[in-house]
Specification:
Elements: H1 7-22, E1 28-32, H2 39-55, E2 59-63, H3 70-77, E3 85-89, H4 91-99, E4 111-119, E5 122-126, H5 135-144, E6 150-153, H6 159-171, E7 176-179, H7 183-191, E8 197-201, H8 202-210, E9 215-219, E10 247-253, H9 258-272, H10 275-283, E11 287-288, H11 293-313
Parallel strand pairs: 1-2, 1-3, 6-7, 6-8
Antiparallel strand pairs: 3-10, 4-10, 4-11, 5-8, 5-9
Helix pairs in contact: 2-9, 2-10, 4-11, 6-11
């Protein structure tokens, strides 16, 4: 007996396939949940411009800063799942579930990961007056003088803050946290000797490192930074799997068709491989970085779990 496929189901299937093949047919909005000119902007802008060339429609940046990215994240969580609203996500995206008592969305349920875009190296700096030229020496110093050393951060609950808390837990040392409103004032006070140490992206720190105003003693990445090949990783310094990541990627609202996600993922990989994007990323201290949607989803899930462990172990009270 021949089974008849319902006309409506067949029509919807054909329409869905056509939609994915034709996508995009109008401009795509990319919500950036942090201010223009910052690292999220630098990570997405070259890719967005290249996507326009590859897919034939404008990819327009829509800046929605506020509440450590939560404002913009909510905009995308509530947007139609049609591929025409995307979100730039960074480390804050995976930290917020632990740093905030309540979010207006579910980080892992309400978004569909599309692809990473770029990553940058995080370095651990000390003021030159601190008598430590390696992570091991810094840890030894902190153990001899418990509670005397401190570390700056770009704000409570951010990656640099949790990086310092991770170091305290991994090394079993006691350091005071000194939060600032951004990387620039924190780095300024580190140079001035008002604080002893901090985690920060390599790009803004390199001029100060080269000038001898701060000392880089560790890279919190799986491999040495291309821009600072002389600085060992934390892994090389005896702290296995110690990583304070700085990654940027794109996500869509949950339920976005898999074919559209796949089309975007392939275009992003192609864009990131171009010499133009690599050059622009290099000037900003970034490196193109892509994965499949499923691999990226797994990575985000692992990152959420990692930061939750740090927040709980460090007894950081959610905001």
């Amino acid at each position: 007996m021949t089974r008849t496929v319902p006309i409506l189901a067949l029509t919807l299937a054909i329409a869905g396939s056509a939609t994915a093949q034709d996508y995009p047919v109008r401009p795509v909005r990319i919500v950036v949940p942090f201010p223009a000119g910052g690292p999220n902007d630098l990570a997405v802008r070259p890719i967005a411009q290249k996507l326009q060339e590859l897919l034939g429609q404008p990819f327009v940046l829509d800046f929605r800063p506020g509440a450590n990215g939560i404002v913009g994240n909510e905009v995308v969580a509530r947007a139609p799942a049609d591929g025409y609203t995307l979100l730039v996500i960074s480390t804050a995206f995976t930290i917020n579930p632990s740093s905030y008592a309540k979010l207006p969305y579910d980080t892992l349920r309400d978004f569909t990961p599309v692809s990473p875009l770029a990553q940058s190296d995080i370095v651990f700096l000390v003021n030159p007056i601190v008598p430590a030229r390696s992570v091991k020496e810094f840890v030894a110093l902190a153990r001899v003088h418990p509670g005397k050393l401190n570390f700056a951060s770009t704000g409570s609950g951010g990656g640099p803050h949790l990086g310092g808390e991770m170091l305290k837990l991994a090394a079993k040392i006691d350091m005071a946290h000194v939060p600032y409103k951004g990387a620039a004032p924190a780095l300024t006070d580190l140079i001035g000797g008002h604080v002893d140490s901090m985690f920060i992206g390599a790009a803004p720190a390199i001029p100060q490192i080269r000038a001898g105003k701060v000392r880089a003693i560790g890279v919190a990445s799986p491999r040495r930074a291309a821009s600072l090949p002389e600085v060992p990783t934390f892994d090389e310094s005896g702290f296995k799997q110690f990583e304070v990541d700085s990654r940027y990627g794109l996500a869509a609202p949950a339920g976005t068709p898999a074919a559209i996600v796949s089309r975007l993922n392939a275009a992003i990989a192609k864009a990131g491989a171009t010499a133009e994007v690599k050059e622009r990323f290099g000037a900003s201290g970034l490196e193109a970085y892509t994965r499949s949607p499923q691999d990226y989803a797994n990575q985000l899930r692992d990152d959420v779990a990692k930061w939750r462990k740090v927040v709980v172990a460090a007894k950081i009270k959610p905001q």
